[in-house]
Amino acid sequence: MEPQLTPLIDSLPSTVPFVGPEALERKRNRPFRARLGANENGFGPAPSVIAAIQESAAEAWKYADPENFDLKRALAAHLGIAPTNVIVGEGVDTLLGLAVRQYVQEGTPVVTSLGAYPTFNFHVAGFGGRLVTVPYRDDREDLEGLLAAVKREQAPLVYFSNPDNPMGTWWEAAEIERFIDALPASTMLILDEAYGETAPGSALPPVDISRSNVLRMRTFSKAYGLAGMRCGYAIGAEKQIGAFDKIRNHFGMNKLTQIAALAALKDQAYLKHVIARIIAGRERIAQIAAGNGLQAIPSATNFVTIDCGRDGPYALAVLNALIDRDVFVRKPMAPVLDRCIRVSVGLDDELDYFEQQLPQALAAVK
Amino acid sequence: MEPQLTPLIDSLPSTVPFVGPEALERKRNRPFRARLGANENGFGPAPSVIAAIQESAAEAWKYADPENFDLKRALAAHLGIAPTNVIVGEGVDTLLGLAVRQYVQEGTPVVTSLGAYPTFNFHVAGFGGRLVTVPYRDDREDLEGLLAAVKREQAPLVYFSNPDNPMGTWWEAAEIERFIDALPASTMLILDEAYGETAPGSALPPVDISRSNVLRMRTFSKAYGLAGMRCGYAIGAEKQIGAFDKIRNHFGMNKLTQIAALAALKDQAYLKHVIARIIAGRERIAQIAAGNGLQAIPSATNFVTIDCGRDGPYALAVLNALIDRDVFVRKPMAPVLDRCIRVSVGLDDELDYFEQQLPQALAAVK
C-alpha cells in the first residue's frame, strides 16, 4: 500500500485558483500582445527599485533576515505603528494561508462573498473549513449580508476586500468601521486592502491596532509593481500578529524582495506618479467601454470591470474572443457578476491594442 | 472575547527554528567579519545568474508562471525524468511544510534523527505530529535505528538528509537503497539531498521515480549559491508529486527566482568550479582544526563539523568566543553531537579570519 494522504488532503480537488497567462500562451502557442488579466502593474517598479535589485543581485547567496527587521521597521514608521503590529510574508496569498490555518479547523464556518478571491477559498478548503458565501449586492460586497452570515453561523473568520476584487468597487471608511464595530469580538476579520493605494483616501479607515479582531492585509504586488517578488504584509494587534510566528516559514522571504520592498516604500514619489497613471488608465478603459456601448463599473483598483450588458455566457464569449485576439483578460465567474469582463490597467500601447481589438471581439460574438 | 486560535496553533510555542545572523549582529551592534554559520555559499551564484537577475529585474511586476513550466522542464531534462515527477517550491523548507501537511495529522508519529533539521521538526509540530527521534550513531544518521522506529511506530513519514546536516557525514547510495528497499510501502521517506551536489557521486542513488514512497528534495540554496532566492524542488512518483498541487501556493514563486534557477542549472561549468572550491574549503577547515588540536569530521557538504574534543558546554563556549570575535558559526545541539561546532565553507578571507581567531577563542575558553 502506497503512502496515504490525510483524509482531508485526499478529499481536495486538484483545481488551481487561477490559470496563468503563460499556460494560455503555451496552449495557444502564441504570446499575448496585451497582458491585462492578472491585475499586475505594467508600469513596473520604480527605477530606484530596479536599481536596488540589480545592485544586490550578487547578494542572492545570503538567506534573508528571518525577522524582516528593516522592512518591518520601515513599514511601521510609514504606518505610524510599532514593528510588532506588522508581519511580512511571501505575498498576501501566503499570509492568507497562515491566517486561515490559525483560525480554521475541519468544519469551521468561514464567511466570504460569492465570487470573491479564489485563493482565499482555496486556503479555506485546504484546511477543511466550510465556506459560507454571501452574494454581492449591486456589484459591491454586501457588508450587511456578510455580518448577518457571521452571526448566523457564529463564524470565527470573515474575509472581504476593500476596494473589491473582482468588481473594483469600494466602501467608504465609515462603512468599514461600522462593520468592524458590529462584528462579534470573537470573529476575526481579514480586510484585504491589496488595492488600498489606488483607492480614494476616504475608503481606508485609519490604522487602528487596538482591534484584536482585525487583520488588514496589504501588498507590494499592485501599486508598487512587484507582483513577481512576492511581498505582502498584515497589520493588526500585537498578539494576533505574533501568532504568525508560530507557523510561518521563518526563512521564506527572498533576500532581494526585502531589498526591493524597502526601496519601493522609500520611493513614494514614484508611487504617486504610478497611481496617477493608474487612475488615468481606469478612465481610459471606461471610455473604451463606453465607446463600444458597454458600461464600466466605477473602480478604485488598478483594473476596471466592464458590464458586457448581457449574461454570463455572452461575457465569456467576449473574453474568449479577446484572448483569441491576443488580449489577456479575466472575468468574474459568480452569477450576476459573470456578465462582466475584468481589464487591468496596462501600458498605453496595451490599452491601444485593447481599444483596437474590443470592437472586433464584440462583432465576432454577435 | 478575542478571536481564538485553533487548539493546535494555540498550543505551539513561539520558538523559531534558527536565529538569523542579522539578529545577532543587531544584538551585538556589530557586523560579523566571517559569515560561516548558515551553510550559505559565499562563492555566490554564477556571474551568468547574477546577469540574468539584473537583466530581468524590470520584469518584477509580473507574477511568475504558476506552473513553473520552464524550470520543471529543465530540471526534468537534467535529471532524465518527466516534468510531472518534479515539483518546484519556495525553498525546501516550504516543500517540507507541504509534505508534512499531506501526511501528518494530530498525533501522527513522524520519525527523524535527534538533532537533525529543526525546520522539519517545526513543521511536524505545526501540524500536530508526534516526533519520534532516533539518536545519531558515530556521528551519522542511524539508518537501522530509523527503520526500526518506523516499524515500531508504524510511522507514515520518515525524514533524513544525505549528506547529513548538521554533521556533514553521508551514506553511500547502496546503503540508502537498502533503507528504501526495507521501508514499508506505506511509509513516505523524505530524503533531503540539499547537499547532494557537494557529495561524492557514489552517495546519491540513481533517480528512480517508480518508488511511490520516496520524495527526494534538492535545492538551489547550497551549491548553486541562491539561498536568498528561495528555490527547492522535490522528485518523486507522479501521483505523489501531483498531490502538492492540491495545497501549494500556486503563485508563490518569485519571478526572478525562476529565471535565476534556470540560469544556474544551465551553468554547470560554474557549478563544477564552485564545488571544487567548496571541497578545497572543507580541506582547509579540517587543516585549521587540526592545527588547533581539534578533529574535523569528514564532510560531503559545504560545511565542516569540528569536534571540540570535550562536552557540549565547552563547545558552546568555543562558539560564543568565536561569535564574540565576529565569526558567525553555529553548532549541533543534541547530546553527543553538541560537542561540535559547525563551520560553513566561506571565502578565503573569511577562512583566513577564522584561522586567525580560532586559537584566540580556544585560549579564551581554557
Automatic annotation (TrEMBL), chains A, B:
SUPFAM superfamilies: PLP-dependent transferases. One of its GO terms (molecular function) is histidinol-phosphate transaminase activity. Pathway: Amino-acid biosynthesis; L-histidine biosynthesis; L-histidine from 5-phospho-alpha-D-ribose 1-diphosphate: step 7/9. The keyword Methyltransferase does not apply. PROSITE patterns: AA_TRANSFER_CLASS_2. Its cofactor is pyridoxal 5'-phosphate. InterPro entries: Aminotrans_II_pyridoxalP_BS (IPR001917), Aminotransferase_I/II_large (IPR004839), HistidinolP_aminotransfase (IPR050106), PyrdxlP-dep_Trfase (IPR015424), PyrdxlP-dep_Trfase_major (IPR015421), PyrdxlP-dep_Trfase_small (IPR015422). The keyword Ribonucleoprotein does not apply. It catalyses: L-histidinol phosphate + 2-oxoglutarate = 3-(imidazol-4-yl)-2-oxopropyl phosphate + L-glutamate. Pfam families: Aminotran_1_2 (PF00155). GO terms for biological process: L-histidine biosynthetic process. It comes from the Bacteria. Its EC number is 2.6.1.9. Keywords: Amino-acid biosynthesis, Aminotransferase, Histidine biosynthesis, Pyridoxal phosphate, Transferase. Residues 36-351 form the Aminotransferase class I/classII large domain. Belongs to the class-II pyridoxal-phosphate-dependent aminotransferase family. Histidinol-phosphate aminotransferase subfamily. This is histidinol-phosphate transaminase. It comes from Phyllobacterium sophorae. The lineage of its organism: Bacteria, Pseudomonadati, Pseudomonadota, Alphaproteobacteria, Hyphomicrobiales.
